Amino acid sequence: MKYKNLFLSASLVLATSIAQPAFAHSQMTLSQSSPSDNAMLMSAPEKLSLTFSESVRLTNVTLASKNGEKIDFGFAPAFDKSARFEWTLPSLSPDTYKVSYVVMSDDGHKMTDSYTFMVH
């Protein structure tokens, strides 16, 4: 029994030390977007906005049609941190669009994600 408790204690310490680096990274997430994920819009949106759970450096955002054609909307990497970003969009034709983004936290951790919306 004594060795079993020692083994369990050592296992717990090892598991905690291995998991610790994962908790060191920031938990930045996209908390709101416009258009929203899976939105089905009857008219083209005028703006694209992304709001994150904390201030981040936005290093890349792309907007692409279903066939992969990139839509230029004037994105430039953000050197200053912010939780909210917004751009005016050109007129979008009916299609399914994919918004992809890359953000970076203070510790250099990058998060890449995407979502889609549809314009009827």
UniProtKB/TrEMBL annotation:
Keyword Signal: yes
SUPFAM superfamilies xref list: E set domains (SSF81296)
UniProt keywords, alphabetically: Copper, Metal-binding, Periplasm, Signal
Entry keyword annotation includes Metal-binding: yes
Superkingdom of this protein's organism: Bacteria
Location of this chain's protein in the cell: Cell envelope; Periplasm
Pfam family, one: CopC
Domain CopC: 29-119
UniProt signal peptide: 1-24
Primary localisation category: other
Function: Involved in copper resistance.
Family: Belongs to the CopC family.
Name this protein carries in UniProt: Copper resistance protein C
Organism: Salinimonas profundi
